Amino acid sequence: MTEGHFFEDLFIGQTAALSKTITEADIQMYATISLDTNPIHLDEAMARRLRFGGRIAHGMLSASLISAVLGTHLPGPGAIYTRQMLNFRAPVRIGATVRAVVEIMDLNPLSKKATLKTTCMVEEQVVIDGQACVLVPSRA
């Protein structure tokens, strides 16, 4: 389901979010599509010996939920990414539900760009935070 906003409809402080539970199938498909076959994501025996004590989801898989919010909710269809900064704060385990939240921080009427705070959380723990900039369709 998608909902879109024109630049003229946006306001500072506006938010949108979505959630997804990360599954084994998600990990396998993401590894296939991205070619990221790092054993930390795919090999439990090896991952147990590494920093997080077991397999974790690809960081960019969780971060991709930010893109989903931007492209389907806020601003929505027609929004074009121009920049994304990400800080990976904690691992995401298979079976965890990631909630991606975006909040408009700044609007530039001349360029029709929106700057948004981006956050991914598992329960109350921030696992990714950062900032995005997108071009937004205008009514004009």
Round the mean pLDDT to the nearest integer and report it: 95
Question: What is the 3D shape?
Answer: elongated
What is the oligomeric state here?
single chain
- Spatial order of the strands forming the largest sheet: 1-3-4-5-2
Question: What's the helical proportion of residues?
Answer: 10-25%
The CA-CA distance between the termini, in Å, is 25 Å
Number of helices: 4
Sequence of secondary-structure elements:
EHHHHEEEE
Q: How many DSSP-defined strands?
A: 5
Ranges where pLDDT stays below 50 over 5 or more residues in a row are: none
Structural class: alpha+beta
Question: β content, as a range?
Answer: 35-45%
- What's the story with the biggest beta sheet? 5 strands, antiparallel
The Cα radius of gyration reads 16 Å
List strands and helices in order, with pairings.
Blueprint: E1 15-21, H1 24-34, H2 39-42, H3 44-48, H4 59-72, E2 80-88, E3 97-108, E4 113-122, E5 125-135
Antiparallel strand pairs: 1-3, 2-5, 3-4, 4-5
What does this entry show, briefly?
This protein has 4 helices and 5 strands.
What can you see in these coordinates?
- The chain has helices at residues 24-34, 39-42, 44-48, 59-72, and strands at residues 15-21, 80-88, 97-108, 113-122, 125-135.
- It is α+β, with helices and mostly antiparallel strands and 140 residues long.
- It is elongated.
Give the tags.
single chain, 140 residues, alpha+beta, 5-stranded antiparallel beta sheet, 5 strands, 35% strand
